[in-house]
Amino acid sequence: MFFNKQKLRKEYDENLVQLIKQTKQELENLQQIEDLVDDFNLDTMVQKKIAESKYFYLFKEARIRRVQIR
Question: Residues with Cβ < 8 Å from 30, sequence gap 6 or more?
Answer without folding.
Answer: 44, 47, 48, 51
